[in-house]
Design brief:
The complex is a heterodimer of chains A (172) and B (204).
Chain A: H1 3-10, H2 12-27, E1 31-33, E2 39-51, E3 59-62, H3 71-78, E4 82-92, E5 95-102, E6 108-112, H4 121-151, H5 153-169
Antiparallel strand pairs in A: 1-2, 2-3, 2-4, 4-5, 5-6
Chain B: E1 11-16, H1 23-33, E2 45-50, H2 62-65, E3 66-67, E4 70-79, H3 84-102, H4 109-126, E5 130-139, E6 144-147, H5 152-166, E7 169-172, H6 177-181, H7 186-192
Antiparallel strand pairs in B: 1-6, 1-7, 2-4, 3-4, 4-5, 5-6
Classes of the chains: A alpha+beta (172), B alpha+beta (204).
C-alpha cells in the first residue's frame, strides 16, 4: 500500500481521536492519563467544529465559552458528527499550552506556550522550541494511547460502550 | 512570522531519510549554495535561505543556524508584481510613441513584443519588491520540520527548496506519519490500516 493510501486509510482516526479526548476530558474532570504515570489536564476552549462525512457541507462551528456543553454540540454528536477541529488547553503541573488542532491532519495553529523563564536571548529560542516540542510530545503520547486502545479489541469494545452511553446519556 | 517571537502556527513535516555523515559541514555548504540573493535588474522573483535572526544575512555559519539539536533558518522570497493596468497603460503609451516616430499606423507582433519586454524591465527596475520570510525549524533528533505558515502555495515552494538543498524528502504530517512519530511499532502501524471508523451511536 503506498503512502497516500495509508494516509487516506487512517485519516478518520484524527477526528475520532479528538472526539475521544472530549469524552475522556468530560468524564474524568479533565484528567487524562498518558503512558506511564503522568497525567495531564485537557480542556476544550472556545471553538469546536463537528463535521459529518461530507465535512464541507455538513458541519457545526461552535464558538462559545464552553462549546462542548452546548446543545448544538450535543445534537451534532447524535447526528453522528465527530470533532474535526478544536481549541484545546493542556495543563501539566504549573504550565499550560493552548492551541487549535485539526482532526484530518493533526496540524496545530495559534499555539500559545507557557512563559519563558530564561533571560539569555539564545537560550530563549531554545527554550521556546523545547516548549513547542513538549506540546507535540504530549499530543503524540495521547494519540498513541488512543490508537493502542483502538487496536486492542477487548479494551476498545469496553471503551466504545462507555462512549456510546456518554453520547446518549446526557444528550437525549 | 518567526520561531523567535510572535504567534506559533506552523505546518509540520517528517523528513524521510537519515542525516548523512558529516551533515553539519554538508548542510552549511548546501545552505550557502541555496542562499537568497537579491533580485537582478528585470527579475520578478528571487527565493532562497537566509538566517532567521537577520533576513539580510545569507552567509551561513554553523552558530547562525544550529541551536542545540534544532536547525533554524528562514525562507525568504522577494517578488515584484507589476499591476496589470499599470503595465497596459505604459505599453500603450510606448506603442503610440513608437508608431508616431516610425510614422506608421501599425506595429508588427515582433515590435510589440519587444516593447512589452522593454517596458516590463523598466518598470521592474523602478519598483520595490515585496519581501516575505518564514522560519523553518528542523528537529534533527526527531526528524520533524516546522514551517512557520499554513499557506499552501508557499508550502510547495518550501518543500521544493528543502529537497533541492538537503537531498531529503519531506512528508507532510498526517494521521499515519504521526503514528511513526509516536513510536508505534511497525506491526501496529500495519494493523491500524485495517481499522474502520467507529459508530458512536448504535450498538448500546
Amino acid at each position: 500500500m503506498d503512502l497516500v493510501d495509508r494516509i487516506n486509510n487512517t485519516r478518520f482516526l484524527g477526528k475520532e481521536f479528538l472526539t475521544w479526548l472530549w469524552f475522556k476530558s468530560d468524564t474524568n474532570e479533565g484528567l487524562i492519563k498518558l503512558n506511564g504515570d503522568e497525567t495531564v489536564e485537557l480542556w476544550f476552549d472556545d471553538k469546536l467544529v463537528l463535521a459529518g462525512v461530507d465535512a464541507a457541507r455538513d458541519q457545526n462551528i461552535i464558538k462559545t465559552e464552553a462549546p462542548t456543553e452546548s446543545a448544538e454540540a450535543q445534537t451534532a454528536l447524535l447526528q453522528r458528527k465527530k470533532v474535526s477541529q478544536a481549541k484545546l488547553r493542556i495543563v501539566a503541573g504549573q504550565r499550560a499550552w493552548s492551541f487549535t488542532i485539526a482532526g484530518d491532519t493533526l496540524a496545530l495553529s495559534g499555539v500559545r506556550i507557557p512563559a519563558i523563564l530564561t533571560r539569555e536571548e539564545d537560550d530563549q529560542l531554545q527554550e521556546r522550541l523545547y516548549l513547542i516540542e513538549e506540546l507535540n510530545n504530549y499530543l503524540l503520547a495521547l494519540y498513541r494511547g488512543f490508537v493502542e486502545l483502538r487496536l486492542d479489541k477487548e479494551r476498545w469494545a469496553s471503551e466504545l460502550t462507555a462512549m456510546r452511553a456518554w453520547v446518549h446519556e446526557t444528550r437525549d | 512570522m518567526g520561531a523567535f517571537t510572535g504567534s506559533i502556527t506552523y505546518k509540520q513535516y517528517f523528513v524521510d531519510g537519515d542525516l548523512p555523515d558529516g551533515f553539519r559541514d554538508q548542510f552549511e555548504t548546501a545552505l550557502r549554495e541555496n542562499a537568497f540573493r537579491e533580485l537582478d535588474h528585470g527579475e520578478e522573483r528571487s527565493l532562497g535561505w537566509v538566517t532567521s535572526e537577520d533576513l539580510l544575512d545569507a552567509d551561513f555559519a554553523l552558530p547562525k543556524f544550529l541551536f542545540g539539536h534544532f536547525m533554524v533558518m528562514a525562507l525568504r522570497e522577494d517578488c515584484i508584481k507589476i499591476p496589470p493596468t499599470t503595465l497596459k497603460v505604459h505599453i500603450q503609451q510606448e506603442e503610440t510613441l513608437t508608431r508616431q516616430r516610425l510614422k506608421r499606423e501599425r506595429l508588427s507582433k515582433f515590435e510589440r513584443d519587444e516593447i512589452r519586454e522593454a517596458v516590463q524591465k523598466r518598470l521592474l527596475g523602478k519598483m520595490l519588491p515585496t519581501i516575505r520570510a518564514y522560519d523553518v525549524v528542523w528537529n534533527l533528533e526527531t526528524r520533524a520540520v516546522w514551517f512557520w505558515t499554513h499557506n499552501r502555495a508557499l508550502a510547495e515552494t518550501f518543500e521544493d527548496l528543502f529537497e533541492r538543498t538537503f537531498g531529503l524528502r519531506l512528508v507532510p504530517y498526517n494521521t499515519y506519519c504521526a503514528l511513526q512519530f509516536a513510536g508505534l511499532p511497525e506491526r501496529d502501524m500495519e494493523r491500524a490500516l485495517e481499522l474502520e471508523p467507529a459508530d458512536l451511536i448504535t450498538g448500546s
